[in-house]
Each structure stands twice: as structure tokens, then as C-alpha cells.
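Incident log, support desk, overnight shift.

02:14 A customer reports that sequence design results differ from what the structure should imply. Their input is reproduced verbatim below. On-call engineer (initials T.W.) acknowledged and began investigating.
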């Protein structure tokens, strides 16, 4: 068995673990069922990846998020670790190949969704595998009280029945005490070791402001920001507009949402990470897997749907340990909007019956059929075809996804895949019949080697650019090649895929989950109420409000949130240290008066003046004849 620290250094390049990681890993290696409750950026994945690599066999990782599974598999593969994932929409033959690879191919990680565990073929394969660890990511999903509850998680204990001596590690970032207790019970963990990190972020100032002119407030917050910032908005159009406004105000910005291509996402993320662009305006499609330490501001311009989601998004600020701010800007309309979006538009069981029946008809799925069939899905076309209320339909699809009826994969910018089935000689002979098709076909051959041997991912936009043709023409040509049996094609023209997870039985399918639907709706209403209480409570420390929501009660006021700043005329020791550090950093750049310093910092002016006086008294700063402060080195 390799030592955990050796594995950490070999594959990740770190010389030490983060708080609690080593204790959690030791617990797993001792064969104990383990619960790891760590905040966002706490390093949860290493808590199962390191011990799995330290032991013989393969680790089964159950995760509800297809994109996250694929991202983790890619990261492991880039480190030379054999890992694979099984998601929806693959044929039975492909599934069998993947399972055989996991069983006999010396793989270390098998990622799959909880719905996949329902399949007998998957269970039979897992029974034959040398499983060393069962990791349940986003474990709060197993609790009906948890954020993003998924009933399919209740069947994860099947793996324990198949391998009763293998330890289970449950990982989550956002579990209330009620959810934690229910999670342990539902997973049937045996005397688990529970490791719970504090939710307190001492360097993070939580700020909430009633603001009608949000753009002006954002400008004031960001105009002197030398680090990175994230501005969260609700819609794609708002992301584009806000980014444009910020650029016009001299704040370098770009937008990020689910509708842009993967190439654009990668380019914008890299520009933001290297600080050539300081601010990224994004929908909540941005954040998963993003680990950028120099984020000084996370600003929400509209109210988040839950404390859980807000805490995760806000937690992306200040990961380097330096002072950072998480700001919520809201007005009266936002309070109306959050209820309209997340409470008033919740689908009832009756709504879901209609939606499910419509969805089945849209894809022409026959009664008793459709299980694990996948379709390209255009949400806009679907709603327009049946004149559906888009908000109700969207929430309904998410409910069906969460409750295990469908799997909705919003993988924007996905690459199509093809394999030529005939020889190059036959293909070139075919091209002689049509010049337009010949140009497209030969361009593909020049761009992609090995396309006669293995299915190859292609970039439609790149092919179109090289040909000087629109993407629509490329797609049309590929369909002709497929019709003439020249190639095998997996074509993605739409912005999502939808997989039916159960055979079509209309009302019966929804009747089975009706109770869970009502429970989910009550939970969502409670979450919205908690958000409104958070923004309206101006008497209690914002940090305390948040950590108390997650059951951490014995917490002192932070001293740096918007409530603490308004209540105190002098600074706490923690805040004095932060303010003095920031002032001294500013004075390294140039001499400044108190007004200039106040404009550059986010603390209240009275506190800045108070700390400046302390610095003067201690001799760390002095003033010149222009009443400017400078460092006394």
C-alpha cells in the first residue's frame, strides 16, 4: 500500500493535506464508513481519490451530475490515472464494453449516476469487480430534506449489499443537521466517523444591500479591484448586457453562460484566470469545478434560490485566505421575482403528468418503451411546438430529472463524432460525383487523422471555417454521407440531450413520485423563505446567520459583514488586522489621503479612519504636508 502523502505528491504535486483531509483518508483506509462534510473548495474529491489509489481494486463513485463526473474523469486521466464514467444515452453494447473495462481493465475509478445502479447488468458487473471503496458524492441528495433531493439515491445501498465489507464515504458541502442525520440513515452507514469542518470563513465579508441602481454599486465595488470578480445574474441576456455595461465603465469583463461554445468557455475562463479580464458575469452555469484563488468579489445581482446554493457560490471568493467580499444586491422586485420563479411556478403532480405525456409524444415514445433511450433536445422548440409556459416547463423538466424519470444533460458545445466505414479509395471516388460534398469531405479528412480507424470527435465550427461554408451546410453533408452509408455519425445539433430512464406509462410513472413532488415543492418554498429572512435580517451578523442555517450555533459575530460594520463604530481585532494590512498595501503603491483610501477599500469610512489613527499612533504610517498618508519604513 502506498502512503497517502506519497500519492498526493506524485499525482497532485502537493506536499501536505488541507485541514481534515488526512484524518478522513485515514478513516477510510481503516475500513470505516465515513462522512466528510467540507465546505466548497475544501478538497472533498481527494478524500476518496487518494485512499482509492492507495488500495488494490476500483472505487465506485456515485454522482448526480453528469458534467461533474466527466470533469473529474478527465482530470484523473490527465494525471495518468485510469478512470471512466457511465452516463445516459449509450447503447447496451457500449455499456457492456465499459463495464468489462472497469472489471478487467485495471481501472481505479468508475463514475456512474444513481439511476445506473438500478440496471441489473450494472449490478451484476459490480458484483464481479474488486471494489475497494464506495464514494457517494453530493450525498445530501439522498435525503428528502436535502437540496436537490433525488429518490434514486435511496437505492445506492444496493452496492453495500453487493459488497458488504467495503467502506462507504459520503461527501457533501451543504448539509443541515437534519439532512446529515437522514443521509447517514438512508445510506445505512455503520457507526460512521463523521468529519465536519467549520463553515466559518473568517476572511470573507458577507454583505447585503438594498439597491435600485445595482450597476452603479457594482462599479463602486469593482473600479479599484486588482483581483478577480464574479457577478452572478439570473439570465443569459442579463449576463451579456451587464458585461457590456461594465466594459463601457472601464471594468474589463466578459460573460459566461450555458449557451456559449466549449471553446469560448475555455478561452474566457483562461483570460479570467490570468487576470487579462478581471470580471466574469455569469449565470449559475459558471462555478462547478472552478478553483481560482484570487477572487476578491462574488456579487449576486438577483436573489439566489436557496441558502445552500448561495453559500457555495459565495464561497468561491477568497479561497487564498485573503480578505474578500460576497455581496447580494436586491430590491423589492427581486423579492417578488424569487417567489414567482421558484415557488409560484413549481409543477404539481398534475402538471408533471401533462408534461411527461407531452414529452413522450414529442419524441414518439410508445407505451411500455423508451427506457434508456436518448434524444437530442431543443427546449425552445419543445415549448413552441406545444405552446408551453417556459418557466413551468423548465421547472417540470428539472423535477422529472431530479426524481429519476428522465436525465437532462445540458452539455452545450458538445462535439459530434464520426467514423468513416469505407476505404479512402471508395470515399474519393464518391466525392467525384459532387464538388460541394467533396470540399467538405476532404476538409474533414485533412483535419482528422485516424478517422477511418476509430470514432473521432469533430468540431463543426472549425470544419465550416476551413470550408468557407455555414455549419448548416456541414450538417447537411454529414447526413448525406450517413444516408449513403459512408460513415457512422453521432451528431449534436441541439443544446441538450434527454434520456428517458423508465418505460413510458404516463400517469402511473408520475403517481409513483407524486408524494416526493409535493415534498420537493414544500422544501423549495422553505428555501426561498430562508433566503428572504437572510436578506431582511439586519440585526444579526450575516456570517452567523449562514453558519447557523447549517447547524453551527456557537459562533461569534464576524466583525466584517454589512451588519457588523453598521453596528460597530470601532473595529474588532480581526477587522483591524485586515484593514491595516490593506491600508499598508495601498500605501506601498503611492501616498494617499483618507478619502482616497476609503474609495479603494470596502470597509466603512469610520473604521478606516479609526485604523489609520492606530497606525499613526504606532508609527507605521506618517502624513505629509498634503495630509496624505505614507508608510514609515
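02:41 Re-run completed on a clean worker. Output:
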Amino acid at each position: 500500500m502506498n502512503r497517502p502523502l506519497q500519492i498526493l505528491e506524485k499525482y497532485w504535486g502537493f506536499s501536505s493535506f488541507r485541514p481534515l483531509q488526512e484524518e478522513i483518508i485515514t478513516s477510510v483506509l481503516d475500513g470505516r464508513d465515513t462522512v466528510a462534510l467540507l465546505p466548497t473548495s475544501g478538497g472533498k474529491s481527494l478524500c476518496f481519490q487518494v485512499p482509492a489509489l492507495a488500495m488494490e481494486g476500483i472505487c465506485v463513485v456515485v454522482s448526480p451530475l453528469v458534467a461533474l463526473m466527466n470533469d473529474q474523469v478527465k482530470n484523473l486521466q490527465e494525471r495518468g490515472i485510469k478512470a471512466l464514467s457511465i452516463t445516459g444515452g449509450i447503447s447496451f453494447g457500449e455499456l457492456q464494453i465499459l463495464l468489462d473495462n472497469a472489471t478487467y481493465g485495471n481501472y481505479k475509478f468508475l463514475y456512474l449516476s444513481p439511476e445506473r445502479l438500478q440496471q441489473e447488468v450494472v449490478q451484476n458487473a459490480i458484483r464481479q469487480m474488486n471494489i475497494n471503496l464506495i464514494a457517494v458524492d453530493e450525498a445530501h441528495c439522498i435525503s428528502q430534506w436535502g437540496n436537490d433531493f433525488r429518490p434514486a439515491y435511496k437505492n445506492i445501498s444496493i452496492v453495500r449489499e453487493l459488497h458488504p465489507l467495503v467502506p462507504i464515504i459520503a461527501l457533501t458541502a451543504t448539509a443541515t443537521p437534519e439532512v446529515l442525520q437522514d443521509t447517514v440513515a438512508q445510506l445505512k452507514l455503520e457507526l460512521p466517523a463523521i468529519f465536519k469542518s467549520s463553515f466559518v470563513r473568517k476572511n470573507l465579508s458577507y454583505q447585503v444591500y438594498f439597491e435600485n441602481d445595482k450597476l452603479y454599486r457594482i462599479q463602486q465595488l469593482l473600479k479599484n479591484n486588482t483581483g478577480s470578480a464574479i457577478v452572478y445574474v439570473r439570465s443569459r441576456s442579463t449576463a451579456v448586457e451587464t458585461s457590456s455595461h461594465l466594459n463601457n465603465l472601464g471594468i474589463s469583463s466578459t460573460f459566461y453562460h450555458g449557451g456559449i461554445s466549449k471553446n469560448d468557455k475555455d478561452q474566457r475562463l483562461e483570460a479570467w484566470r490570468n487576470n487579462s479580464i478581471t470580471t466574469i458575469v455569469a449565470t449559475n452555469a459558471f462555478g462547478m469545478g472552478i478553483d481560482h484563488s484570487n477572487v476578491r468579489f462574488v456579487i449576486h445581482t438577483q436573489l439566489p434560490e436557496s441558502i445552500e446554493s448561495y453559500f457555495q457560490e459565495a464561497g468561491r471568493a477568497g479561497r487564498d485566505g485573503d480578505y474578500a467580499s460576497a455581496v447580494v444586491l436586491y430590491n423589492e422586485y427581486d423579492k417578488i421575482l424569487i417567489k414567482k420563479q421558484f415557488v409560484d411556478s413549481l409543477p404539481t403532480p398534475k402538471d408533471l403528468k401533462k408534461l411527461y405525456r407531452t414529452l413522450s409524444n414529442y419524441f414518439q415514445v410508445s407505451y411500455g418503451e423508451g427506457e434508456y433511450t436518448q434524444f437530442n433536445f431543443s427546449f425552445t422548440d419543445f415549448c413552441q411546438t406545444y405552446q408551453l409556459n417556459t418557466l413551468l416547463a423548465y421547472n417540470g423538466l428539472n423535477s422529472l430529472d431530479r426524481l429519476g424519470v428522465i436525465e437532462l444533460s445540458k452539455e452545450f458545445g458538445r462535439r459530434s463524432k464520426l467514423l468513416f466505414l469505407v476505404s479512402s479509395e471508395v470515399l474519393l471516388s464518391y466525392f467525384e460525383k459532387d464538388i460541394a460534398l467533396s470540399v467538405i469531405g476532404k476538409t474533414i479528412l485533412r483535419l482528422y487523422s485516424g478517422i477511418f480507424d476509430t470514432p473521432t470527435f469533430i468540431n463543426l465550427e472549425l470544419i465550416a471555417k476551413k470550408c468557407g461554408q455555414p455549419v448548416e451546410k456541414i450538417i447537411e453533408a454529414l447526413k448525406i454521407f450517413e444516408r449513403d452509408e459512408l460513415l457512422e455519425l453521432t451528431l449534436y445539433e441541439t443544446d441538450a440531450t434527454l434520456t428517458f430512464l423508465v418505460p413510458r406509462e404516463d400517469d402511473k410513472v408520475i403517481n409513483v413520485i407524486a408524494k416526493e413532488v409535493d415534498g420537493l415543492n414544500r422544501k423549495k418554498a422553505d428555501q426561498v423563505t430562508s433566503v428572504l429572512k437572510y436578506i431582511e435580517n439586519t440585526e444579526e451578523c450575516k456570517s452567523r446567520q449562514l453558519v447557523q442555517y447549517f447547524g453551527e450555533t456557537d459562533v461569534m459575530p464576524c466583525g466584517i459583514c454589512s451588519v457588523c460594520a453598521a453596528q460597530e463604530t470601532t473595529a474588532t481585532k480581526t477587522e483591524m488586522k485586515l484593514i491595516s494590512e490593506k491600508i499598508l498595501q495601498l500605501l506601498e503603491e503611492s501616498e494617499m489621503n483618507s478619502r482616497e483610501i476609503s474609495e479603494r477599500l470596502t470597509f466603512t469610512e469610520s473604521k478606516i479612519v479609526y485604523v489609520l489613527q492606530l497606525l499613526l499612533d504606532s508609527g507605521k504610517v506618517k502624513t505629509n504636508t498634503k495630509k496624505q498618508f505614507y508608510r514609515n519604513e
